[in-house]
Amino acid sequence: MKFIIEVQRKVEDEVVKLILERTDLTQREIAKMVGVSLAYVQSVAKRRRVQRPRGTGSPAWKLKQKAS
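^ that's the sequence the OP posted. Answer follows.
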């Protein structure tokens, strides 16, 4: 049981790190990279109180608009 909790903590730490450092990625893309669901990424962000700009002002959205 202790092993599972340790693995879960490491995954959550990785998710938080990606949310904060990779502003060019959406939460959906982060979920795909880490191999978890979008709902899990969102719940980790909420539980750890991690936020970043949303919608059309977000760095990920702006980057996608430049690419199109």
